[in-house]
Design goal:
Distance between the termini: 44 Å
Bound molecules: acetoacetyl-coenzyme A
Oligomer: single chain
Shape: globular
Helix content: 40-55%
Number of helices: 12
Strand order of the largest sheet: 1-4-5-8
């Protein structure tokens, strides 16, 4: 009996099975081809929207499913087991832009954007990082200057997941002035749409993994954004981004667990069928210990993730818990995919089996939405912040 330690409700099992069925039918048959050619399949967005996967955390009044955080993460893990690229698109959309508008947006912004986002008619993206502002996100330099009823934005955003297919981009820009810099408290968040004059999609990154999820630069060249598209207070954009990244990091943890689980499942099956020295390799303790460590880390990651999700839904401070979940799950993804390649041996190093792609896909979970080093900083700071 395999242990996942989750006692799923009937509703959760239904959503998990729907996600699994969708991913197996609509993504699995094309995965190698899309990975090879770095192809993003736009029709997935509408299909996922139709099934409710792009409005999972939105209330029903905005055409969302209104499920709790755990249920959302269960669906996300299921998609990630099949395709980590589709999972990151789903994670960014649900955890960042939709949640930011729901939490900090005006009634008018919610009415304008949330329903089409939930239905998959508008894909969401999140633009915080810049070429010179990664881990030190508050050092971003994209400038917003007020001009009558508008803001004029100039600057370049980097590493924007789905940025070339997005209909709504939540972009952070400085609202303080060059003569009076206010650090993290001098940044606003703007709801940018690609039809705004001055919006340009720049370089599309040629990535090691997650190749069917596009990652692009965006440049704003005198981009004119109506003040009606400013989210909340003009100096609070960084705080909104950090609060939202708590959701984001839970999503990436679920994605990482999906990748790790896929590696575990593939390695378990292979170890049963591969014979060496006249017996299946799973009869060797060297292989058993690897599978045991992989299974234990997947279960521990999942337990940590769902404990953080429940605490979040109870309204507790989850800054530390979300970073712990993301840190542990992403290192589990790297550990499990590395072990899986080792169990497959030479066959793990070539594209005939899926573990080579899983190994490549896993790495970025230790980098984006805050590197493992940044997660450790957040965890440590929280550890002594209450002294
Ligand atoms: N909730 C509420 N407020 C928060 C917060 C949170 N989780 N985190 C920070 N803040 C507040 C702080 O309280 C502080 O407020 P005051 O001004 O009142 O003191 C303010 O924000 C500034 O915070 P810090 O002093 O902690 O800021 P810092 O400059 O030291 O940076 C950091 C902190 C943790 C290093 C942060 O910069 C960080 O998380 N860096 C990583 C950035 C990141 O994750 N980027 C991912 C981009 S998205 C992506 O990957 C692409 C994609 O599409 C997937």
């Amino acid at each position: 009996m395999k242990s996942d330690l989750l006692n799923l409700s009937e509703e959760q099992r239904g959503i998990r099975d729907l996600a699994r069925e969708f991913a197996m039918q609509e993504i699995a048959p094309f995965i190698s081809e899309w990975d090879e050619s770095a192809h993003f399949e736009p029709s997935l967005v509408k299909k996922m929207g139709d099934l409710g996967f792009l409005g999972m955390l939105l209330p029903e009044e905005f055409d969302g499913l209104g499920v709790d955080t755990s249920t959302y993460l269960i669906a996300l893990e299921e998609i990630a087991v099949v395709d980590a690229s589709a999972a990151v698109m789903m994670s960014v959309h649900n955890s960042l832009p939709t949640q930011m508008i729901l939490r900090f947006g005006s009634d008018e912004q919610k009415l304008r954007f949330l329903k089409p986002m939930a239905r998959g008619e508008l894909l969401g993206a999140f633009a915080l990082s810049e070429p010179e502002a990664g881990s030190d996100a508050a050092s971003l330099t994209t400038q917003a200057v007020r001009d009558g009823d508008d803001w004029i934005l100039n600057g370049t955003k980097s590493w924007v997941t789905s940025g070339n297919h997005a209909g709504v981009i939540l972009a952070m820009a400085r609202t303080d002035t060059p003569s009076e810099r206010k650090g993290a408290r001098g940044i606003g968040t703007f709801i940018v749409t690609p039809d705004m004059p001055g919006f340009h999609v720049g370089k599309k990154e040629d990535k090691l993994g997650l190749r069917s999820s596009p990652t692009v630069q965006l440049s704003f060249d005198n981009l004119r954004v109506p003040n009606a598209n400013l989210l909340g207070q003009p100096q609070m954009g960084f705080v909104y981004a950090m609060q939202s990244l708590e959701n984001g990091r839970l999503g990436i943890a679920a994605q990482a667990i999906g990748i790790a689980r896929a590696a575990l499942e593939a390695a378990t099956a292979y170890a049963a069928e591969r014979h060496q020295f006249d017996k299946p390799i799973r009869e060797f303790q060297a292989i058993q210990f690897k599978l045991a460590d992989m299974a234990t880390r997947v279960a521990a990651s999942r337990a940590l993730l769902h404990a953080a999700a429940h605490a979040k839904d109870r309204g507790e401070n989850v800054k530390q818990a979300t970073s712990m979940a993301k840190l542990f799950a992403s290192e589990t993804a790297m550990f499990c995919t590395n072990q899986a390649v080792q169990i497959f041996g030479g066959y793990g190093y070539v594209k005939d089996y899926p573990v080579e792609r899983l190994f490549r896909d896993a790495k970025v979970t230790e980098i984006y939405e805050g590197t493992s080093e940044i997660q450790r900083i957040v965890i440590a700071r929280e550890q002594y912040s209450h002294e």
